[in-house]
Amino acid sequence: MRVREETVPYRPWKTLLGFAGTVAMLNAVVAVLAFVKDLLTAMKLGTSQLADAFSMAYFIPDTVGCNLIAASIGIACVPVFSRLLAQGEYGRLRQAVRWAVIAAGGSAALIAVLLFAAAPAAMQGWTGSGTTDGVRMLRVMLPIIPAAPLMYIGFALLQAAQQFRWPAGSWIVLHAGVTLAAAAGLTWSLPTDMTAVAMAAAASAGVVTMTIWTWVRVKSLMSQYPHEARPSRPERSDRKEIGAAFVTYLLISLGTHGVYVVERMLALQGDTGTVTGLNYAFRLSQLPISVFVLALSSVMLPGMSQDMALGRMAALQQSVGRALTMMLVIAFPTTILLFMLRQPIVALLFERGAFGRDSVLITAEMLGGYSLTITGLAVAAIAVRYFLASHKVFIPLIVSLLAAVLQIGADVYLTARVGPVGIAYGAAAGAVASGIALTWLLFKDLRLAVKLFMQPVLRIVLANVPVLLIGVIGYRYWLTGIGLEAMSGRLMLVAATLAAAAAAYGISLWKLNLLNLWNKEGV
């Protein structure tokens, strides 16, 4: 059908960047709340058997409901919903939403019912202890599994309509609820088992509340669109597109989680504390991904889908080129500073109590490897969204599976050569390979000019030279140990290094004419 381009107005790059900035700030608030939640949880539950039971009881519905089913159906729906909105086919949009809700929500509900019956066996298999408290917490949090996919489908529709704040900021509800439950247990010295169950109930209630409020907003949004007696053409193609993207992204997620399992199995062969160090290092390295990378990529996907549907290929080329360049502007200095300041950052955040100097060194070396994954993951996030928007979902699937095989091979080889720290550097090898392959395939498919893209990339590399020098100075001062015994000294070192690097980087970007990159034509 012929589409009127004025159905969906063109969004300038500055507007998209503004959306991404808002989403990044909300992601940062969520990350801080999640950190506070983890800190209070550790203070109340410690490293007890109950703490392990709570962690696994939360891990199961969070992984199955949020990270696998919900994330996959959400990202699969965005391109379809965006295209139907761009084409003004509101009847088909309503049918696609209805089908996604029934298919994903029904499947997730069935899984939740099966897990409810199998809860004792599940907890026994994962933790080695099917305690009553663990089974109770798992069953309390099982509503997360059917609720999360419904919430993410609502998120997809809001994002397709260029409404990004609630999908990003809604997680504040979950983390705030669990944090308050943990704080109440600490403040009033409640029994540990009671506090753990209250935290589980707060997590479940938080996701359900987020889902309900999401659909209140969706209903308000859909009321603005006219009703059609029947769709202009059958919706089978929409179902097929959503289903194909869902299965593809689910397989990618399963492959990623499979690599995580292998990494943790390898870490178990190391000294005591290796697994804990790996977990802390991985989560620290994921912070810039969850705050900045996901913000820009989530904002870009609806626009890419609409540009594709409306045939705005020139606009699509510019948006993708600028997004990749912006990812590098963020990823390069983040990687450098996280790598150079890995020891002072870990010491500042975690060195207290049982987390001694040896734990700092283990975690810091892991963080050094994981920090090198950031750039590859950043550019891969944009490339994956592009291939989803262009209905070529098999490309990121094949690349991600090959990268997973490469990463596992690198993990095994490097672990045998240099010990457990090789796990983190194996992850870096996989991320770099995936990022390079997906970016090359994206350039080839979209016919982007590599020479034009390399010009700003070289300037970005040059702008990071002062950042690298400042990072080296900060690291060398850390090795002297002068004035760094107290926590205040470590805080001053990290803060001063980051402030100096940020100022130098800002000046370099300005001098190299990179601050107004999004105002220029082309890449």
Tell me about this structure.
The protein has 523 residues and is mostly helical. Helices cover 83% and strands 0% of the residues. The protein contains 20 helices and no strands. It has helices spanning 13-45, 49-87, 90-117, 119-127, 132-141, 144-160, 165-169, 171-187, 192-222, 236-267, 274-310, 313-340, 342-350, 357-371, 374-389, 394-418, 421-446, 450-463, 465-480, 487-511. 48% of the residues are buried. It is found in: Cell membrane. It is a multi-pass membrane protein.
Distance between the termini: 31 Å
Structural class: mainly alpha
Query: What proportion strand?
Result: under 5%
- Low-pLDDT windows of residues: 1-8
- Considering DSSP H and I runs of 4 or more, what fraction of the residues is helical? over 70%
- Main β-sheet description: none
Mean pLDDT across every amino acid position: 87
Total beta strand runs:
0
Envelope shape:
globular
User: Number of helix segments?
Assistant: 20
Query: What integer value in Å does the Rg equal?
Result: 23 Å
Q: Can you write the helix and strand succession as a string? A: HHHHHHHHHHHHHHHHHHHH
